[in-house]
Amino acid sequence: MRYVDEFRDPGAAKELVATIAALSGRLGRTMRFMEVCGGHTHTIYRFGLEHLLPEAVEFVHGPGCPVCVIPMGRVDDAIWLAERPGVIFTTFGDMMRVPGTTGNLQQAGARGADVRFVYSPLDALKIARENPDREVVFFAVGFETTAPSTAITLARAAAEGVANFSVFCNHVLINPPLQTLLEARNVRLDGFIGPGHVATVVGSDHFAFIPAEFHLPIVATGFEPLDILQSVAMLLTQYVEGRCEVENQYARVVRPEGNAAALRLMAEVFTPRDTFEWRGLGYIPDSGYRLADAYAEYDAERRFDLPAVRVADHPACECGAVLSGQIKPWQCRVFGTGCTPENPVGTCMVSPEGACAAYYTFGRLSRRPNTR
Ligand code: SF4
């Protein structure tokens, strides 16, 4: 398959693994690289990359799985919205099984709520056009990667005057949790495999604060196995050559300045929240978007009188420690027993991008020690 097979070529992979082994041998210590994005975690375990690399290179899983970071209270709010009379609640499929305190959206549907999964916010807008006598709410989640598609949908709804459509906005930003994690200094890291999808929108220069303030390299990285291996080689090369900077491995998609049209539209439609709650990580300043005042009539939080009750995570849940790289999924006491993809306790077991789901599906027998 063109544009995919080239990035899964076994011969090229072997060469990169040999390069990584030689570079790591020159450094003589364990190097711990955080893959920020859940898509990278999935590729690492699906293709067994961890087992190809020398013991002295360790992957640390980061906070970049959009489904994993949504707190219980926001899921409860979503269920409350779905159960309002006359509402059609639309969501991406991943969010259907994320647990709140009273179950999940799938179970709300079984109780009688009209919950429909969609592939894009434009599908939700189409449902609104087709059902003018119903209120249609879209559950918007995701980082800067998916925020532009929500913004385009809202701009279109406003242009067409679709009055029965609104968005429950839970879009989050990637830099604030990385900043918080680095300032906490409770996880030893040597660099970042940077989130390629987010970088497509915000640009690789967006991460310049990491080398500038924290003296760690970051490489914006694609999602095929060779992308990740090349990224690891680039990070190690920076150390060998005494450099510390932002590099762009994903140059076939990512520009240093990002996507100007997407950024312009996002700035028109969204405004930063003072603070936003992240599952397991608590409140992080300036880490979420709400709808700008110009789009207030499409804001489900203003259209409906949301209870907005904040609730603590399940007492057994250690998703926060997993999302901040402090523990590996198998170190959570309910991993694979009380918490499985069929019966998730925490969000990291729900989405295929979640680290716990990746370990459970592809790597649960591998238990490399955590060297932090
Ligand atoms: S095993 Fe379940 S509860 Fe534990 S960290 Fe993973 S998702 Fe959360």
Largest beta sheet: strand ordering: 2-1-7-8-9
The value of Rg in angstroms is 21 Å
* End-to-end C-alpha gap: 39 Å
Note the main sheet: 5 strands, parallel
What is the element string, with H for helices and E for strands?
Answer: HEHHEHEHEHEHEHEHHEHEHEEEEHHH
What is the name of the CATH class of the domain at 72-174 and 258-303? Alpha Beta
Mean of all residue-level pLDDT scores: 93
Strands, total number: 13
Shape, please?
globular
Name the descriptors.
single chain; four-stranded parallel beta sheet; binds iron/sulfur cluster; 372 residues; five-stranded parallel beta sheet; Rossmann fold; alpha/beta
Task: Describe how the helices and strands are arranged.
Elements: H1 10-27, E1 31-37, H2 38-46, H3 49-52, E2 57-64, H4 72-82, E3 87-91, H5 105-110, E4 114-117, H6 121-130, E5 135-142, H7 147-160, E6 165-171, H8 175-184, E7 191-195, H9 196-202, H10 209-214, E8 218-221, H11 225-240, E9 246-248, H12 260-269, E10 270-272, E11 275-278, E12 282-285, E13 289-291, H13 300-303, H14 319-323, H15 355-363
Parallel strand pairs: 1-2, 1-7, 3-4, 3-5, 5-6, 7-8, 8-9
Antiparallel strand pairs: 10-13, 11-12
Bound molecules: iron/sulfur cluster.
Iron/sulfur cluster is lined by residues 317-319, 322, 329, 332, 334-335, 339, 344-346, 348-349, 356.
Can you characterise this structure?
A five-stranded parallel beta sheet has the order 2-1-7-8-9. Helix content is 37%, strand content 17%. By secondary structure, the protein is an alpha/beta fold. The model has no long low-confidence stretch (mean pLDDT 93). It has a domain at 72-174 and 258-303: Rossmann fold, CATH 3.40.50.11740. The protein binds iron/sulfur cluster.
